[in-house]
Specification:
Elements lengths: L12 H20 L13 E4 L15 E4 L1 H6 L4 H12 L1 H9 L9 H11 L2
Antiparallel strand pairs: 1-2
Helix pairs in contact: 1-5, 3-4
């Protein structure tokens, strides 16, 4: 039996709110970092995570997310070694270690939390 694919119109309001929250937050990150890749210094138009995954508690954490170029974010899988080193330089080892300690936690985002993120980071 073939798998059924969900249509875009079937997506829940919470899914749509999550997408909007990410779009707004991503725009904030790129503007904050002036479009400079966190790992290589070239022009960037993406937002990359040290700890990635939509259901992580630090998905919308501005320390965890920084501007990256397509090459570093996708083709180099986040350029994680350089990313981690740069995070430690920028924020210190304590804050970076705190992120790493939470990497296995799961977070289910509520519609209210997503709306709060949209309002906070909407530029």
């Amino acid at each position: 039996m073939p798998k059924l694919r969900r249509r875009k119109k079937d997506r829940s309001l919470k899914d749509k709110a999550f997408d909007k929250a990410w779009k707004v937050f991503r725009g904030y990150i790129i503007k904050r970092d002036k479009g400079v890749c966190f790992t290589c210094g070239k022009k960037g138009n993406q937002a990359g995570h040290l700890i990635h995954g939509k259901w992580k508690p630090d998905y919308f954490n501005p320390i965890n997310v920084n501007c990256q170029c397509v090459s570093c974010n996708h083709f180099l899988s986040g350029n994680r070694d350089v990313y981690l080193r740069n995070l430690q330089k920028k924020y210190g080892i304590k804050k970076t270690d705190a992120l790493l300690k939470r990497r296995d936690l799961i977070k289910r985002w509520s519609a209210k939390e997503l709306e709060s993120i949209i309002n906070k980071y909407n530029i």
